[in-house]
Design a protein that fits this description.
mainly alpha, 9 helices, three-stranded antiparallel beta sheet, elongated
């Protein structure tokens, strides 16, 4: 599995917040952070999120369809805090916020709107108007984040794996991680239990500490 260590994950989060201080970076940067904080597949499960999918009181994201089918994804308070931060910015800053579009604009329903929507862009078929209402192509921003954080060059999907291995490392039960990642089978989730060297070190410390009390 391709993932970042806990230390590198913290560097990535710090880099995201630093780069997000520039308005033109903010939507893409926060979209990438959201993918990390909820363990979702960035392009198919996070970037296209709409506000009506967030069930605040239950702390879940509701999906009608994903790669593994529909259902609810439990989300942490950290993810909810990021969403609340974005929502507050939309209300307080209005048109000055890169997250804000008026109700008449179809992008207003999306948490991570695409500023390129309706604009001409070069495609493999020539110049076409962009039809995506949400962000999608964020390679440049992801590259900037990795450079700023000083971490290895990994694909964006590594954030999902990073979330999962971090959960394993801090002792989150596999059944809960299965719900976070929306895996159909627990066997898929079990892969992450074997991936984390940090977990092996920490568990070894616990076992050693336990035996020391008996000696």
């Amino acid at each position: 599995l391709d993932f970042y260590s806990s230390a590198d994950m913290m560097k990535i989060i710090a880099a995201i917040y630093k780069l997000a201080k520039v308005l033109k970076n903010r939507v893409a940067a926060y979209g990438i952070l959201a993918a990390l904080l909820c363990g979702g597949r960035a392009r198919s499960e996070v970037f296209n999120l709409t506000w009506d999918q967030i069930i605040w009181d239950r702390k879940v994201i509701h999906y009608t369809k994903t790669k593994t089918g529909g259902g609810d994804r439990p989300i942490t308070d950290s993810m909810l805090a990021l969403l609340a931060k974005i929502k507050k910015e939309r209300i307080e800053k209005g048109s000055a916020s890169p997250f804000y579009y008026p109700p008449s604009d179809p992008r207003s329903a999306y948490i991570f709107p695409n500023y390129m929507y309706g604009e001409n862009k070069m495609t493999l078929r020539g110049v076409r108007k962009c039809k995506l209402k949400h962000i999608y192509e964020i390679k440049l921003m992801w590259k900037k984040i990795k450079i700023e954080a000083g971490v290895k060059n990994r694909d964006l999907k590594s954030l999902r794996h990073t979330f999962a291995t971090y959960c394993v490392t801090i002792g989150v039960p596999l059944r809960m991680i299965q719900k976070y990642l929306m895996h159909r089978s627990i066997k898929t989730t079990e892969i992450y239990a074997a991936a984390s060297e940090e977990l092996i070190v920490e568990e070894n410390k616990r076992v050693s500490a336990g035996f020391s009390k008996l000696m």
